[in-house]
Amino acid sequence: MVSMKDIATRCGVSVATVSKALNGQTDIGEATRQKIIETAREMGYTANSAARALKTNRTYNLGIVFTDLANSGFMHEYFASTLTSFRLEAERCGYDITFISSNVGGANTSYLQHALYRGVDGVAIINADFYSPLVQELVYSDLPVVTLDHAFNNRTCLLSDNMDGLENLVRFIYGKGHRKIAYIHGNPTAVTESRMTGFYRAVEALGLNVPEEYIEECEYHEPVSCYEATKRILALPERPTCILFSDDYAYIGGINAIYEAGLRVPEDISVAGYDGIHMANMLSPKLTTWQQNTTELGRIAASKLIERIEHPRTTPPEHITIPGKLLEGETVKQL
Question: Distance between CA 53 and CA 94 in Å, rounded?
């Protein structure tokens, strides 16, 4: 069996340095870490997880709370990409992942109870009802916790730039000459609140008048709900020149309502989405949207959770905003 000493000899470093590299510690150079990891892989090294757990008092297992609020499972590209990135970073640092649930074997349990039962070292809350007592119990427990897109004062949080993203999207549309802009936003969440703030911040700064009937609500990732909301906006006596949709996938419902009304995009009405999923670039015309950086969201969430687990005394809670970018597309017409 290959040992750390064998790897250290091959790489010309100490056993301590090999241990740091394989355990995901951050106080060695990245080039050295990558050399050691690659050498370990080539030599067929397999860590003795039981021995490592006894030595460090850790299980090297991260919990994930992912509640399927939109009944879309992993079909939602935003979450699928974020979870993949989280898993890859966790594995790179020597950690496994376990999904934490409130229903185990048909019996009701709390997230905290399940996390403790599984012996996870920390938990990432990727998608959940953050106001739920079950989530609150977990957040305020002694376990290290990282959240996505919902901030708690005492926990590290990764935030997509929802407020700035929506504001920049409105400013882009304004720059194309549009003054009648409608917004079909998602159902009430912290994400929606941030996006609505960005929308109205841009509207106020640009001096736009947005009638109340230009603001509609639909379910995230739900084309049927978006279809109905779009129909209501298109039926207005004075319809907008551009409609912002809650997300790229829901836009499918919106575009069907537009086509049913005998309108063309962008010739008769302009549109924009949000998320920047792969599908947006495959449509014709290509959808104008704001792309969230899911790769960085997942990677940094895992990295910060592991940092908190391994260095609890020197790792303070942080609120980290991950910027996105505009994908201009072809669906916003110059007026």
Answer: 12
The predicted-structure confidence for 287-309, as pLDDT tens digits, reads as follows: 999 999 999 999 999 999 999 99
Amino acid letter, residue 183: Y
243: enclosing H helix or E strand = strand 242-244
Rounded to 5 degrees, what are φ and ψ at 153?
Answer: -60, -35
**Reduced DSSP (H G I as helix, E B as strand, rest coil) percent helix, strand, coil of the chain, to 5:** 45, 15, 40
Contact partners, residue 187, CB within 8 Å, separation at least 6: 217, 218, 219, 220
Instruction: Give pLDDT tens digits for 12-32.
Output: 998 888 877 877 666 788 888
- Which single residue is written with the structure tokens 């009937």? 213
Q: How far apart are CA 11 and CA 31, in angstroms?
A: 12
Query: Which letter does DSSP use for residue 57 in this model?
Result: T
Residue-wise burial string across 168-197, b where 16 or more C-beta atoms lie within 10 A, e elsewhere: bbbebbbebebebbbbbbbeebbbbebbbe
pTM, 2 dp: 0.79
Rounded CA-CA distance 231/220 in Å is 17
Residue 272 and residue 332 in contact, taking contact as beta carbons nearer than 8 Å? yes
CA distance 280 to 287: 5
231 has pLDDT over 50: yes
Integer-rounded Cα Rg, in Å, for the chain is 24
* pLDDT for residue 56 is more than 60: no
